[in-house]
Amino acid sequence: MLPDSIKTTPLNGLHRELGARIVPFAGWDMPVQYPTGILTEHLHTRSAAGLFDVSHMGQLLITGPDPARAIERLVPADIVGLGEGKARYTVLTAEDGGILDDLIITRDAPDRLYVVVNAGGTEADLAHLKAGLEPEHQVTHLADRALLALQGPQAVACVARIVPEVERLGFMESLVTTVQGVEVRISRLGYTGEDGVELSVPADHAVKFARTLLAMEEVKPIGLGARDSLRLEAGLCLYGHDIDTTTSPVEANLAWTIGKRRREEGGFPGAERILREIAEKPARRLVGLRPEGKAPAREGAEITTTDGSPIGKVTSGGFGPSVGGPIAMGYVVAAQAAPDTAVHILVRGKPLPATVVKLPFTPHRYARRGA
């Protein structure tokens, strides 16, 4: 019997039926892997289509007279310029320029935004958005909806068998349609570096949707273990590890999320620090690291120069199945952040040679327009 504090997604029973190993994650009972194992799941996603249960993520709806302009008081991205049916990755910033959470905002209509936030930050983000936007705008938690992610080079073709119009979507585009008699939101995006979609469906229809997809030969269930190794290979930040309240968007290589107008106008929390770092460069940077040998460098490991001077710490690390060796990300002082810089990482107390590399470790394969 689960503790009262642990939440379950609508697919919990299906995960157990499929033989998943279940672990607590961000307050949720979640599958970390299935019987074939993380390595097989990772490589299957890169070659075919992997189905992830991401229903623990927070789905929010913001409605009101001009929610795009209003939310720009809380995020540095250009949301006013976002077209209908388009999505944008951004961050909630604190007054000191730190990152409260990262999120994806989709503009449904002039008076409606759909927002997805991290599982562990849902309650705090909901409170933060309500405090910053209400009563002029209404912030609603869509707790009655599940979220599935189908990722990989064959993902869109699989979904198109059910919803043909998905093929007209480009990367970071979304549509709302009716499937199997219920409203489904399909967004062409994800967090693996692969092409794919996320499907927001009513919670009581989630198992039916999942079974429909899993009945396809190309689709296999994938757990959180492979989700983490996939996003690490893709050089994508994980909140609470690679980004948090102590890191700025510029330090985290997320300055690209801040459009020209927002840089010129400011008006978002932490703008003074963030715009200064864009102009003058930050004191440290998030970099990719390729350790030599086979030993992985884990989160918290110290990074030093080759002569032993401390220059930073690893924030994410592990084995990259597609890369065929250990990979890591971490922050180092700006003077040591250039690609091909030789460094050491302390693994079990011993200095392990490593090289700073350009991110991502594996190329992104998103469905870009004209690609």
What descriptive keywords fit this protein?
20 strands, alpha+beta, six-stranded mixed sheet, six-stranded antiparallel β-barrel, 371 residues, globular, single chain
Largest β sheet strand count, sense and barrel closure: 6 strands, mixed
State the low-pLDDT regions, or none: none
Count every beta strand, where a strand is a DSSP E run of 2 or more residues.
20
The gyration radius over C-alpha positions equals: 21 Å
**N to C succession of SSEs:** EHEEHEEHEEEHEEHEEEHEHHHEEEEEE
Strand content: 25-35%
Strand neighbour order, sheet with most strands: 11-12-13-10-4-14
Return the average pLDDT rounded to an integer: 97
Overall body shape: globular
Report the end-to-end length measured between terminal Cα atoms.
50 Å
Discrete helix count: 9
> Helix coverage percent of residues?
10-25%
Supply the helix-strand structural class. Answer: alpha+beta
List the helices and strands and how they pair.
Layout: E1 7-8, H1 12-17, E2 21-25, E3 28-33, H2 38-47, E4 49-53, E5 58-63, H3 67-71, E6 86-93, E7 99-109, E8 112-117, H4 122-133, E9 138-141, E10 145-151, H5 155-160, E11 174-179, E12 182-187, E13 196-202, H6 206-214, E14 219-221, H7 224-233, H8 260-265, H9 271-280, E15 284-291, E16 302-304, E17 310-320, E18 325-333, E19 342-347, E20 350-357
Parallel strand pairs: 1-3, 4-14
Antiparallel strand pairs: 2-3, 4-10, 5-8, 5-9, 6-7, 7-8, 10-13, 11-12, 12-13, 15-18, 15-20, 16-17, 16-19, 17-18, 19-20
Describe the structure.
- The protein has 371 residues and is of the alpha+beta class.
- The protein has helices spanning 12-17, 38-47, 67-71, 122-133, 155-160, 206-214, 224-233, 260-265, 271-280; strands at 7-8, 21-25, 28-33, 49-53, 58-63, 86-93, 99-109, 112-117, 138-141, 145-151, 174-179, 182-187, 196-202, 219-221, 284-291, 302-304, 310-320, 325-333, 342-347, 350-357.
- It has a six-stranded mixed β-sheet with strand order 11-12-13-10-4-14.
- The longest helix is centred in the middle third of the chain and has 12 residues, at 122-133.
- The radius of gyration is 21 Å and the shape is globular.
- The mean pLDDT is 97.
